[in-house]
Structures are given as structure tokens and as C-alpha cells.
Amino acid sequence: MRLLTHNMLQCHARGCTTRNYPLRFEEVRLDTEEKTEVNPDFIMGMLPKLDWAALRTTAMQLGMTELPEQAPDTTMDEATIHALHAILLDTRVMEGKMVCDGCGHVYRIKDGVANMLLTEHEV
Length: 123
Hints:
Distance between the termini: 23 Å
Number of strands: 4
Number of domains: 1
Strand order of the largest sheet: 1-2-3-4
CATH topology: N-terminal domain of TfIIb
Structural class: alpha+beta
């Protein structure tokens, strides 16, 4: 699961309406693949769609400290574009879990795929 995807996920378990975003990673195994070509236009287009605070918090939890405190504007330098690309697209969570701070629900990640399905009593 890419961190770009994680930035858009929240807990939907029954009764969970507060502190359900962002989901917190635990016990993760990361894979960094530098197979995708950096596309500055794509990164710039995604920037307004990202929750910057959530992305930065998640990146810090995973030991990635290269993101600036404030979201960059349209004059982003090349180093920031490359750092953002590496975090959003080249870093994948292969194994682990995402935990909701609001209700404690655990979403498992296996082979790079997050299981966001809820059982009938959780919906």
C-alpha cells in the first residue's frame, strides 16, 4: 500500500466518528522501490488533495523526516518534489496494520494490500 493511498483512508467502523483519521501504522514492513519515474506535474496536481498534516505525521512515524512542516506551494523545488515522490509513490507498506486512534479497530496489511472490509457487526 502506498502512502498516497493511506492519506485518503479513514476508519468506518460502527460508532467511530472522532479521531478516525489518519490511521496509525504499527508493526510495518516497508519496501522502497525506485521504479516509478518522477512526474513533477503529477506531484503538483496531488498536492491540493493531500492532507499535509496527516502525511507529515505518518511519514515521521515511519522515520521519514524530509518533508517540510508546511505544505509547499506551487514553487516547490526539485529536491522537495523528489522527496514527496519517494514518500507518496516509491514507499510501500508491505505488511503490518493500521490502527484507528478513535475506536482501536485494526486494519491488517498483507502483501501490500490493506484489508478495509468490516464484518457485519462492525458496520
